[in-house]
Every structure is written in C-alpha cells, then in structure tokens.
Amino acid sequence: MGSNPTKVADGEVPDEKLAGTLSENRNIYKMLDMHGGGVLIKLARQCKEFGCYDMLDAYLDQEVRKFMYNAGKGKLMPIAELVKARNQERNAKLGAFSRKKGKGKSGPNILDEFDQGQAEMAGDLKKALKLLDGGGKGGKSESKYREMVWNLDDRGSMGEHVLAICLLQGTALHNIIAKRLIHFFPKLINDICTSEDYYGLSPLHMAIVNQDAQFTSILLRLGADLNQRCYGAFFCAEDQKTSRTDSLEHEFVELTKNTNYTGSMYFGEYPLSFAVCTGHHDLFRMLLAKKANLNAQDTNGNTALHLCVIHDKMDMLDAVLDAGGNPRLANKQNLTALTLAARLAKKTESTQHLELMDGLIEQILDEKWKAYGRALWFRSLLGFIFFYCCFVSAYMLRPSSATTEHITRGRINDDGETESTNSSNYLQWHSIDTQCHLMYYSEWPWYHGWFRLGCEVMTIVVMLFQILFDLGDIRRIGFQKWFNFLKAFPAKLMFKGAFLFILISIPCRLACSFHEFLTIDNTMAIISVLLVTQHFLYYMRAIPFVGPFVLMVYTIIATDLVRFAMIYSIFLVGFSQSFYLIFTSCERDSTLIKKTDPLGSEFNNIMENPVDALLRTFIMTIGEFSVLYREMAACDNFWMKWIGKIIFLIFETFVSILQFNLLIAMMTRTYETIFLTRKEWKRQWAQVILMLEMGLTPESRKMHLLRYTRPTGINKRVRSYVVVSRGDGEKTENEELAAREAKEEQKREEREHEIKAKALALMSAKLKTEVKKRRVLRQQTVDANSRL
C-alpha cells in the first residue's frame, strides 16, 4: 500500500505549499532566523563595520530575490486558496471532533491564463479584476484576489517573510536589513503573514506593536495599506477562538457574537486599532494624518472607541473622541462604546466615580426628587402608616382574655378569674365554644369586635392592592430586575414577606371550626407584625441624619454578626456538650447516693438534654451564670465539680470576654467606616429614588422628565439635562465671584496700560513737534545772522 501523489490541477497551487508552516525545510531561516543569526545578519554586521553596504545589497539582489514571485514584483493569488490553507492548518491543530470545514465554494481562477510576470500587463490585470469582482481598494466588496510577494513555499513557521522576521526581532542590525529590503522590494511592505495564528499581520502592524515610530513613518511614506486587517487567532478574543470558521467566499474569519472580549491581545484588526490598544499617541496621530478611518469596524463590529473601553485606555479614549470618533456606532452585539462599558462593568477599588456624586449626578437626583420623588415618598409613607395602624390595631384589639381561656382550657375565664375544677363553668367548658372566638365579632365590645373587623378588612384590601401594584411592576420590567431592586432594601423585602404570612392566616381563621388553628393564627400574626414594622427602616434611608445609620445596622448584621456567629457557634456547641456530660455525671452520682442515703440532698440537673445544654450555655454567655455555677458547686462528684469549674473559667475567658469584645470592636470599626463616608447618604438617597422610580409607568416617567430637561436643537423630542459648564470642576459661588472680580481687575489693568501707552505716545509726538519747531527757529536765526 503506497501513498499516491495527489494530483493538482494546472495553475492551482498545492495546499501544502500554501500552508508554509507544513514545510519542514525552512530556507528562510538560513538567511535570517529567530535567534539573531543567519547570512543576512553576518553581512549586515560586516557592512556596518566597513561603512559600505554593497555586499548586503548584492546578496539581496541576487539571492533573496529568488524567494519572491516575479523577482519581487508580486503575484495575484485567489483568496479562496489562502483561506483553504488557513483552514487546513487550523484543523491540523484541533482534534477530530473539533475540526470545521470551510464553508462556501471557490470560483474558477481567472488568472490561470495570464502571465503575471509581464510588467505591461500588471496594471490592466488589476483593472480587469476590479470590474469582474467589484473589489480591490475602494470597492464596496472584498476583492477575490490578493497580491503576494514572498513565495508561499519558503515562508517561516508563522507564514512570515524575511521583512517580518526583521520587524519581529527589532534590533539595530535587523532594522538596517529591513530598510535595505524595502528599498529593493517596496511591495514587501504590504505582504502579510499567512498562518492561522497571524493571518493578515502586515509589516505596519508589526512596527506599531514594536512602537517604532521611525519605521512606521517610513512604511506610511512608502504607501503601507492602512486598511489591512489582521485576522490571526493570536489577536482574537480568547472566548472566540474555538468558534473560528472560514468561508471560501471571503477572507475574514467568522466568529460567534457571544463574547466578553477576553484576552489582552485582541487589538481590533486595523493598524489604527493596534495603535489605540498599544496606547501610542504619536503613532495614532501619524495614522490619522494619512487619513486612516477612525470609525472602521472589525469582525466583531468594534471601533477604536470600543477597543479603548475593552482595554481601559482612558487617555486614548479622549484622543479618539477629540479626533472625531463616532460614539453612536454599535457593534455586532448592538452595543455602543457607552453601553459596552456598562455591560463589561470592570469593577475596581477606585473611588474616582464617587466624585460624580458632588456634581452632575447629585443635581439630577435633586431634580428627580423635586419632580416626583418627594411626593411619591410622602404618599408611600402616609399609605404605609395607614396600613400599619390598621394592621397593628387588628392585632392589638384581639380579645386576649378569650385567647387565655382557650389556651388554659377554661381554668382562667374571659374575665381573668381562675375557675376551680369543681365549678360549673369549668365542667361545662368545651373547646368548640372558644376556638373560633376571633370570629365572634358581635359578642365583643365594639372596639374588640366590629372595629377590629374593619381594621382586618382594610389590612387585607390594602395588601391586595399592593400585591396588584407589584404584579404590574413585575409584568412591566420583569421579575429578575424587580427582585434585584428589592434586594437592595432588606426592610422592603421583609415587608413583602409579611404578606405571605397574612395570606396564610386567612384560611387558618376561616377554618377554625374544623380544627384548633388558633396557635398558628397567633404565630402568623406575631411574625407579620415584626416584619411589617421593619419597613419603617426603608423610609428612614431617605432622611439625611438617619440613612447612614440604617446602613450601619444592615452592614453589621450582614458582616460582623455573621462572622461572629460562625466562630461563636463552634465554641457554643463544644462547651454546651461538655457541660451536659458534667451535669449528667453529677446527676448519676446523686442518684446513687440517694439510694444509700434517702435523706441526702437532691441534685437539680438544669441540662437534662443537649438542647437544654445549648440554651443554658447561651444564656450564660450574656451574663446569667449564677444558676449554673450554683448547681455545679452542689455536685457530689469531686472530680466532675472541679472539671466543670475549670471548663467554666475557660468558657468565660475565651467566649464571654474575648469574643464579645472582639464583636464590639468589629461593630465599632464598621460604624466608624460608614460614618466617615461623606457620600454614603447620597447613595442611600439615590437608591430610594430609583426604587420610587420603578413604581412609575414609562409614560409617567416621561412626563416627569419634561419638567427637569430642556430640548436640544430643533427636534423637541431630543432632550438633555442642562448643566452650566464651569471649567475643570464645580466651583462655589464665592469662587465664581472671585473669578469674576479677577477678570474685571485684569480688564481694568489692561485699560490703564492702554491709556498709559496712548498718553506716552501723545507726549512723544508733542515732544517731537516741539523739537522740530526749535530746530526751525534755530535755523531761521542762523539764516538771519548770515544775511546781516
């Protein structure tokens, strides 16, 4: 079984040759390798020593020229063949299940019948290709052909040519060779790398990555292509590399739209984008001077502005905007530079954004508060107070005496008197008569009966209205967004949770005749009252002198208490079980002694089970340890008594003293941190306004928007919030007054200087006139004397 040679059609270049990386014999590295060696380096070093480059020029003209198409004049090749070779190289690196075949079909190679070596036909051939394909430079569609200069068979492992190797190394000798190369073969400046990782990488890209302004200037002066795009996988986003697919109908690589643009080498394909991502202002200005397209979009649709956002180049962002970058252009994900920055949301520890609270954001929040925030806040507060009064009244006006009678099974009547076991009232008592006493509204005084019923009905009606409003908000903005807003307000979250317990208590009340649900009803009411009362904290967040303290409570509970509870629970469980074993041993010894001596003292075991031990130990933590110590001292077992005292001492030292003081220190630190934050209340205030704004319909928000914005331009629908520009930062009234006075003083000094200058000019003119008059009089006197 032998391997038959693959037949290649006439005029078609074999795929193995197009993928230069598959060739084992790299003649290019004999001339110039990646380690600073090669024939060209030796010649360049000798020529530099002698100050004459004739030997280097002769080698380039005689030997290097052989590795180029048409002796350096270049050759047009079908894009489809280059893409096919790129696809084969990618699949060779991937596993069998990850390989992707190129899509589309390649058309016939219309260059087969042309002899591209004839110089007189080169210009006519390019014109014909423009007519046939509609491509070429300046065409609306991509050209189906690309001019290649260096032979594809003799390229390096990255599909590079000798000029690319010089730029990759970037030493002084390599720069000398590169300048001689582009002198002899100027078309090399647009010859690209052809490998999968570096496809489309041109000498201009390499010079920009090297931040070599001098060589970039040389390339631009010689006509380097400003629109050459680098599609290589090395310069692709990391989360898009697995989605790279080719089509024989175009040169660019197809990528998935789902990406977060991860990776530090995603530079945006264009030379101008490379300059932006490297942060080199001089190179950026050079490319702009050569009319590079500032708003060119790469395969992802990203412009230079998008790339500034992705790579956090704030200084370059200002430069691009000043140069005329369009901030409204959207990429393939339909994101502008602004919305892309919001989506990526690169969080850092920087506090610079908080400075906005003192300026524009604070003004907008103030306008929103005046427009609708204050009214909605007061309306919501009054509505909640009404609901709270009804709810608490419905709970507090319950006939507690009847509840006590039911719980004690008639031993205590509804008048609060204790019934004897022989009394007729006690003997005739039945639970069915009292288990629905909360439903007997007519049998109680008006405040325990009908008024309580009215409060309960109003509570349920207001709660149902609130639930309907919440369902409207969820339908309008979605549950996820609604819940995210709600999570920022624990008090409001507890308030919404109280509705669930109120709803559960309704069927419990109605089903009282079937079973004794009284205990569940009371439990639901107690939990509901606790949760509803916490809702006052939500309204307190909008008050300047209370809001930061509400946050302190939340922060201390969420951080300090949680950490303390995790550590404290370990000590609590361990020590409680130790005390349980000690008291159990003492009780056992006391039982044995009681058998032999019935008159002996009886030991009182206050920790009969592990749960009691846990609760007793917790009570001891907060200072009530006298009962435990007294009972432990009465233990008849000598060793258990002293072991218990030692464990008690250790527990008091490491838990009651050390850990609780540590908790106090942590809470103090949290308090001071929040108290010293000047802008904390503004953040609380902003959250309250956003929560109030969520309850408004889009139409209502638009109507309120008209109150604090102004139309910009002729189109009245386009509105903006007007801010008076005050220079580099916000100034106080005193600073503005001082600035105006300084300006007036400067004008006054300029006027005085001008008046003085005019006065000096007049005096000088008068002086000159007087001198002339004296000269004339002197001359007349001399003439008169001469006549005499």
From TrEMBL:
Q: Which UniProt keywords apply?
A: ANK repeat, Calcium, Calcium channel, Calcium transport, Cell membrane, Ion channel, Ion transport, Membrane, Repeat, Transmembrane, Transmembrane helix, Transport
Quote the subcellular location field of this record: Cell membrane
**Mode of membrane association:** Multi-pass membrane protein
- Annotated spans, Disordered: 733-752
**What positions does the domain Ion transport occupy?**
458-674
Recorded hits in Gene3D superfamilies, A to Z, give:
Ankyrin repeat-containing domain
The protein's name in its UniProt record: Protein CBR-OCR-1
Q: Which gene encodes it?
A: ocr-1
